[in-house]
From TrEMBL:
Name under which the protein is recorded: IrrE N-terminal-like domain-containing protein
Pfam families: Peptidase_M78
Annotated InterPro entries: IrrE_HExxH
Organism: Kribbella shirazensis
Annotated ranges, domain IrrE N-terminal-like: 155-219
Domain of life: Bacteria
Length: 301
């Protein structure tokens, strides 16, 4: 079933919708993001029934979203299970997963109970958020040994990564949000690509789709819309990369993009939190009145 869904991910809007689901659910793996997106494209906060029960909310059982839950071997350490997150086994524990079973999760819209607020707040992104997000991403670049420069670029381009001098350059003519988008794009290249691949140019073909996708997901997390989109070429590039099995290429791209976005989002979330940046409340679904609940700090596994 998943393969059939992957084959359908041809259009740019299908892909960006999947990236939005990924931005809101960074602990889920690509396969489960596909399943969630397929069954409920507008899902905004998905968790298991027991997690909703801990928040005092009941699920409407007829509205379950089916996902795949890993079955782990008995030798798996509790710490490994803990670190694997809800349903997206991290790469380092994957060898201990011995199969999958079908599990149920529920979107917030399929629950009822007392008012709650979202644990992550993604609307009304202001310049304080933008500045801190920029710093957080620059810190991620530095963790990989890449310095970030902002300077004029004579050719009108928005930026580039120089793998030789380990430097990311962002053009100084961009506004704050476009600069963040470019920095996320370049950090995406640093994390996913090597200068030895293909023709040595990072910003071409599937590599460009992947970097744009990471930037799109990271910005979507904080309510910032992206401008640059090469998604509409995804199907074409996938077919060029593997004429017989383009779906495999798209799947590999999806896994790379969601894994890279997850790490950047988790690190940015943490950086924003440490720096006390308050994100404005997001407008929820009508049945959920907003109330402050600072004790919630992430999607509950
Ligand atoms: Zn690029």
């Amino acid at each position: 079933m998943l393969d059939a869904e992957v084959r359908k991910l041809r259009s740019g809007s299908d892909w960006s919708n999947l990236l939005e689901v990924a931005a809101l659910h960074p602990t889920y793996g690509f396969g489960n993001l596909m399943l969630i997106n397929l069954q409920m494209p507008d899902a905004t906060w998905v968790a298991r029934a027991d997690a909703w029960a801990r928040l005092g909310r009941q699920v409407k059982t007829g509205q379950a979203i089916k996902i795949l839950t890993p079955i782990r071997s008995r030798t798996t350490s509790p710490a490994a299970v803990e670190s694997a997150g809800e349903a997206g086994p991290a790469a380092d524990v994957e060898q201990e997963v011995i199969g999958f079973r079908v599990g149920s999760v529920y979107d917030v819209s399929a629950t009822s109970g007392p008012p709650i607020s979202y644990p992550y707040l993604v609307a009304n992104t202001g310049y304080a958020v933008a500045r801190t997000l920029w710093e957080g991403l620059a810190r991620e670049a530095a963790a990989d040994g890449f310095a970030v420069d902002v300077r004029p670029l004579g050719d009108g381009s928005a930026g580039f990564t120089d793998f030789d001098s380990r430097r990311i350059v962002v053009a100084d003519h961009l506004n704050d949000f476009r600069a963040i988008e470019r920095l996320a794009h370049e950090v995406g290249h640093v994390r996913m690509h090597s200068p030895d691949q293909g023709d040595g140019k990072a910003c071409t073909g599937l590599r460009e789709v992947e970097a744009d996708s990471v930037a799109y997901a990271v910005l979507a997390r904080y309510g910032i819309s992206s401008e640059t989109r090469s998604f509409s070429y995804l199907a074409g590039w996938a077919k060029a990369a593997d004429p017989d099995q383009p779906a495999n290429v798209i799947k590999a791209t999806g896994v790379r993009v969601t894994n890279t976005s997850r790490r950047l989002i988790e690190s940015a979330d943490e950086y924003l939190k440490v720096h006390g940046v308050m994100l404005g409340p997001v407008t929820l679904r009508p049945q959920d009145q907003l109330s402050p609940s600072p004790e919630l700090d992430g999607p509950v596994p």
